Amino acid sequence: MKSSKKNLDAIIIGSGIGGLVTASQLAAKGAQVLVLEKYIIPGGSGGSFKRKGYTFDVGASMIFGFGEKGYTNLLTRALKDVDEYCETIPDPVQLEYHLPNNFCISVDREYEQFIGKLIERFPHEKEGIKKFYGICKEVFACLDSMPLLSIEDPSYLFKVFFKAPLSCLGLARWLPVNAGDVARKHIKDPELLKFIDIECFCWSVMPAFKTPMINAGMVFTDRHAGGINYPKGGVGKIAEKLVSGIERLGSKVRYRANVIEIILENDKAIGVKLSNGEEIYSDMVVSNSTRWDTFGLNGNEKGLIKSDNVPKSEYNWSETYKPSPSFVSLHLGVSKKIIEDTLNCHHIIVDDWDELENEKGVIFISIPTLLDPSLAPAGKHIIHAFTPSSIYEWENLSRDEYLIKKQKYYSFLIGKISSIIPNLGENIDHKEIGTPRTHRKFLGRFEGSYGPIPNKKLLGLLPMPFNSTKIENLYCVGDSCFPGQGLNAVAFSGYACAHKIGSKLNINSFKLPD
């Protein structure tokens, strides 16, 4: 197809939350941006889809970043920056854990209530519990007191340091530290340390010794500060509203636009090529694909950059980080009568601590209609359950073998959910099962992965790459970049990416964000 030259300040590949925040921030600064999404809806794993009157969240429905105060509420701020607002419903409990040795505990919105429950279970670790979660509060206080949106811009960092020098120094102290190091310094009880492992695993897919302390401090405190707040209408509303803001400001989001190559000229990114042959040009290109999909790493033959042009630093990254497992997801529409109104929305089941990081070792369950009944037809509830599963479990199967395996996982998950919600099997109105192959196909993620995890223990967040790459004018955004996984984390990467590009386009405000 004839190539097209367009007056664009930036092209963004993918409409995940990281890509949309990058686009919305640039659009808010006056840039002309084009987002190219190969699927038919925005949001990626932060999107929603509709079936038979149900609105299902693609990924997790436990959302951080929707508070009203401080600097850590990045989803609230990103929407506000493009004159959008997402009505939210506060969740009184982040999670209810169902763990070995009859250890059940809910993480209440009220901090002292949760800490009190934990001390009641582990009275001999009272001081250690207060110390560990107290350090988490200190880390969060540093994050929440300063507008830290770019790590790559020295002049910006100087302004932030001038505004909040103690917070900057406090944060720097924890950058090379993992949560497990801190926990084991103050806590000795092995069961309590396992609990902190699952506290990390539920959002990072890593035990505490691999989870950066900065991330842990953010999550373990924000749930009691800004709180867990569910977007009314489903998680996909976040992406929809960002798209609305982007387009109102004159930029555009195109669907069914499958980018197959990033065009380079003299080692510089100058545009993209679509699967229909169309070429679109811009001086700035941002990939919201994973780094494996962007650079063709780990044997991925469909990278957007041809192998001869892949920087050595990206191969080094792929040796340091590996894809986390994908998931088998189960979306159910069920009769309302089988779920008590007093049941908590989010649950995690672990039957054996030794299986935590293995196939089917953890079961996540969400019932978002307990917060927002509008997601389901009258008299119905939604149940979304998922369990880690590797792509290698699902490769090289015949069609019949694939369907049989899906049915086995379905039966397994139904059995686990039934331990919390009895009489489930005979009260199902609608069901859909997604496998790692499903996630790879529709989310465009290497191996269907949730995101990168370290191959071995690393120095906290320090090894994570930022948005810039060794290829001039090519940037990455999303969970393959600092600070990692989760909607609020990829929103941060979007802010940082937009700031870096904005500095090159000379459109950044000199003032720090309010």
Mean pLDDT: 93
Outline the low-pLDDT stretches. none
Q: Per the principal axes of the C-alpha atoms, what is the gross shape?
A: globular
Radius of gyration: 22 Å
| E-strand count | 21
Which percent range describes the beta-strand content? 15-25%
Distance between the termini: 46 Å
Instruction: Describe the strand arrangement of the main beta sheet, using strand numbers.
Output: 7-6-16-17-18-15-19
Number of helices: 15
- Give the helix/strand class: alpha/beta
**Considering DSSP H and I runs of 4 or more, what fraction of the residues is helical?**
25-40%
The biggest beta sheet, please?
A: 7 strands, mixed
Task: Characterise the protein shown here.
By secondary structure, the protein is of the alpha/beta class. Helices cover 35% and strands 20% of the residues. It contains 15 helices and 21 strands. The protein has helices spanning 17-28, 74-81, 111-121, 126-144, 154-163, 165-174, 179-186, 190-204, 213-227, 236-248, 291-295, 312-320, 399-418, 436-443, 487-505, and strands spanning 10-13, 33-36, 48-51, 54-57, 88-90, 93-99, 103-108, 229-231, 252-254, 259-265, 268-274, 279-281, 285-287, 321-323, 326-335, 346-349, 363-366, 380-389, 428-434, 452-454, 474-476. The strands form 6 sheets. Strands 7-6-16-17-18-15-19 form a 7-stranded mixed β-sheet. A 5-stranded parallel β-sheet has the order 9-2-1-13-21, covered by helices on one side. Strand 1, helix 1 (17-28) and strand 2 form a beta-alpha-beta unit. Helix 1 runs parallel beside helix 15, helix 4 (126-144) packs across helix 6 (165-174) and helix 4 (126-144) packs across helix 9. The longest helix is centred in the C-terminal third of the chain and has 20 residues, at 399-418. The radius of gyration is 22 Å and the shape is globular. The N and C termini lie far apart (46 Å).
